[in-house]
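Work Package 3 committed the consortium to producing structural models of liganded targets before the mid-term review. Because experimental data for this complex are still outstanding, the team generated a predictive model from sequence and the ligand definition alone, so that downstream docking and mutagenesis planning could proceed in parallel. The input record is reproduced below exactly as it was submitted to the modelling pipeline, together with the SMILES string for adenosine-5'-diphosphate.
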Amino acid sequence: MNLREKYQIPHDSVITIAGTVGVGKSTMTNALANALNFRTSLEKVDTNPYLDKFYADFERWSFHLQIYFLAERFKEQKRIFEYGGGFIQDRSIYEDTGIFAKMHHEKGTMTPVDYETYSSLFESMVMTPYFPHPDLLIYLEGSFDDVVDRIKNRGRPMEQQTPLAYWQEMHERYEKWINSFNSCPILRINIADYDLINDQNAVESVLDKVGHFIQQSRKWETRLIK
Ligand SMILES: Nc1ncnc2c1ncn2[C@@H]1O[C@H](COP(=O)(O)OP(=O)(O)O)[C@@H](O)[C@H]1O
Ligand SMILES: Nc1ncnc2c1ncn2[C@H]1C[C@H](O)[C@@H](COP(=O)(O)O)O1
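The resulting structure, written out as tokens with the ligand in place, is given here.
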């Protein structure tokens, strides 16, 4: 019996991993996809034509970057649909608007007109009955200090040059955002409770939680339909 069957995770599940920059989303995405034999939908940082420019000048590039991310995530959504699910997705589309666009708008690094244009595009593309939401959003949470250590250790130059206040603001916004998020079921996991890098068994403890959670959600759905 493979791990997907062992933990009763449906073969067509779409699981998205959310959380602040550096918390461990890509690591979790790869670990779960390997264990389940699922495909990954990863954020491609190296080929992003705006990201470096954005970190150097938020005001000039924030709108361009958000439009780029929206297009990329929609392309990925189409790919996931065409394969019929069985995906682990590195970051949800909801964070683009709920965290990044909102934060840059409120901090004055995205103009009100650009924010309005972006938000109306997002609303008409994503917040509709035609947009398939993931089966589960795994929210990774961790202390600010641990997250900053991980950003430092990873060493992406553009992130090293960004003031700590930016990451602090984002960390606080994530906590508020997840408390009011309701677009799909959420499973919260604290990064202090597992270690995917040094502990071979850690992925199975996550799969165990995911399996239980999906079974519970499906029971609730069945009761609601009846
Ligand atoms: N369990 C862990 N323990 C220690 N370091 C970790 C762990 N998980 C991830 N990391 C490291 O933290 C950094 C950020 O992880 P990453 O998965 O790239 O985060 P994200 O995709 O959320 O930005 C990477 O250098 C990664 O190797
Ligand atoms: N929507 C976004 N707006 C601004 N910056 C973003 C957005 N989505 C991702 N990013 C940045 C943050 C990081 O520097 C890289 C990759 O994110 P990560 O959380 O490390 O996977 O892109």
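Reviewers should note the following from the model. The beta strands are 14-18, 39-41, 87-90, 136-141, 186-190. These observations will guide the Year 2 experiments.
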